[in-house]
């Protein structure tokens, strides 16, 4: 079945999305640089862009840039004059992302911050940012802290999206108390419906296997 999920994912992308030589080049550049192929899928990128359009996003936050694939999808979907702030801890990844932003002609719309997110996020608060949408996709162990910062940084009515919240069902495996899994479980606690967020999770299958995307709205 998993093979079939991936095959269907590719079929949908081929039948629904326009050909995009620039995004193909971005993924090729990532591969040449030896980056792990853990970018969002094309259909997930299209979903992020669609949500940016729905909320009329002018100010978007991303935690975890990698080579900039998801960032490019969102940067292209910003309202006029909009800007995406994206945080990346690994300078090598950031360098690849920078070149990809130039390839995709989104340099003016992207503010790439190189540093650990837990150090950069408080700076963004000091700078007075209010984001329309945040996409959290970095080290899973810090997801509870990232959700907490997102509650401060995202405006009321704005969206917080978190990638990889199902991990092939490993959230159920009580024996797995790795920091990543505990971070994902902790995220659910932060996001509970009675708190600052109204949240749900869509489980996903496709070229990235079985996983899930959390979609939360800041109250
Ligand atoms: N959003 C990207 C994929 C991100 S992969 C896309 O879909 O294209 C996760 C990234 O988070 C990696 O590049 C990793 O270096 C970065 N990362 C890990 N820990 C981090 C931290 N503490 N602060 C900022 N970035 C971090
Ligand atoms: C991994 C990280 C991701 O953000 C992702 O979407 C898929 C896999 C990982 O660290 O394995
Ligand atoms: Mg991810």
Could you please describe the fold and organization of this structure?
This protein is 43% helix and 22% strand. The chain has helices at residues 2-16, 21-32, 42-54, 69-76, 91-103, 117-126, 143-153, 179-190, and strands at residues 59-63, 83-88, 110-114, 131-136, 154-163, 197-204, 211-218. A 7-stranded mixed sheet has the order 3-2-1-4-5-7-6, with helices on both faces. Helix 3 runs parallel beside helix 4, helix 6 (117-126) packs parallel to helix 7 and helix 7 runs parallel beside helix 8 (179-190). The chain is globular, with a radius of gyration of 17 Å. Bound molecules: S-adenosyl-L-homocysteine, 3,4-dihydroxybenzoic acid and magnesium ion (MG). The site of magnesium ion has 4 residues, from loops. The site of magnesium ion (MG) has 4 residues, from loops.
Brief write-up:
The protein has 219 residues and is α/β, with parallel strands linked by helices. The protein contains eight helices and seven strands, in the order H-H-H-E-H-E-H-E-H-E-H-E-H-E-E.
Helix-residue proportion: 40-55%
The structural domain count equals 1
Q: Could you spell the SSE succession in H and E letters?
A: HHHEHEHEHEHEHEE
CATH class: Alpha Beta
Secondary-structure content class: alpha/beta
CATH homologous superfamily (4th level) name: Vaccinia Virus protein VP39
- Ligands (ions, cofactors included): S-adenosyl-L-homocysteine, 3,4-dihydroxybenzoic acid, magnesium ion
| Shape, per Cα inertia axes | globular
- Count of DSSP E strands? 7
Residues in β-strands, percent:
15-25%
End-to-end CA span: 38 Å
Strand order across the biggest sheet? 3-2-1-4-5-7-6
Radius of gyration: 17 Å
- Poorly predicted ranges (pLDDT <50, ≥5 residues)? none
CATH architecture title: 3-Layer(aba) Sandwich
Tally of helical segments? 8
- According to CATH, the fold-level topology is Rossmann fold
Largest sheet: 7 strands, mixed
The quaternary structure here is: single chain
